[in-house]
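Team,

Forwarding the record for the chain on the shared tracking sheet. I've put the sequence and predicted structure together so nobody has to dig through attachments.
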Amino acid sequence: MGVGADPDGQPVIALFAKPPVAGQSKTRLGRVIGHDLAARFARAFVVDSFNALNALDWARVLLSSTEVSGHPVAAEVWEQCEGDLGEKIEHTMRECLQRAPYAFAMGADSPGLPPHFMDAAREAAVTHDAVIGPTVDGGFYLLGLNRCPEGLLANLPWSSGNTASATVARLAERGYAVAMLEPWWDVDEASDLDRLRDHLREHPKLAPETAAVLAMVC
């Protein structure tokens, strides 16, 4: 538990998101579909992801970002520290755990995440030190922790096919009891849009902003 955290306090969810600027957000997607359109998707992803999380009655939601302005939602924004993704997550999680018994770091690249995934994350966090929601490409869509000492996520292979497995191994080495959630997927490449489109055809209310962009361009 974070130092000084209220054990009965509200969990914090830190949504990691850049401002949706063409050429600076969703660049892998932009190289195929164009950076202006990729930025439109990035905006929709952030809006839908934030609104879905903000609707939870058990968590406080904020943005962790490279910039404090330029975001499409009215959210509390914490500026990220310098360094690689591990350092950014560590810094944000330590700040969150000063205020909460546990915290979650999430990306905005999985719009339409089924609500029961967050219910499962909440339940697992009560009985485990860490919670991982793996993605099918080897990363993770969620990392939950009840403590985050310096160096916990140092030198991990970010943006690789074994990011999640390496993170789980690191946590186990440090004595964390780790819960694994159901795998899901994120949207990094143009090919991922087909799966997203199919998902939102069945569940458009889970990510209405994203569904609207898809309807206009696909």
